[in-house]
Amino acid sequence: MADHLEASVTLPSDPASVPAARAYVADMLAEWGMPADTEVSDTVRLIVSELATNAVQHTFGQSPTFTVDMVLDRDERLRVGVTDSHPRLPKRLPAAVQQDNGRGLVIIRWLAAECGGRLRVRPTREGGKTVSVELPWAVPATEPATEPATAAGRREP
Fold this sequence. Notes:
Layout: E1 4-12, H1 17-31, H2 39-57, E2 65-73, E3 77-84, H3 104-114, E4 118-123, E5 129-136
Antiparallel strand pairs: 1-2, 2-3, 3-5, 4-5
Helix pairs in contact: 1-2, 2-3
């Protein structure tokens, strides 16, 4: 695999773009060698879904698009980020029992930590922000082929 891979897609800031962002990330992970049925792939798709949803819901129409960026460095670290042009940085809201939203970043931070990664929020030069996660790249090893069974149902040595 290459030392450095990058992928990016810009989508309209519309709820219909959230599944498109998730599918794009899944396709790129598969292209880079991460099978779709792994826990890491599921986690990355969930994180992107949350980040894209936040970019659509919390920019109040002031960011016409959002961009999903992916970077894989030396088969060691994967960074996935969502950038929008709205200047307000996300804030962690106090958890309340009746609260229907505001838990997305808490969930993302927890998911990233569970995978050995971290969440970052950075302002962009253009006045927007990028919310990203950096995770260890861990492609599961393929299982070795098993020896064929003998007629008696035992494996040959």
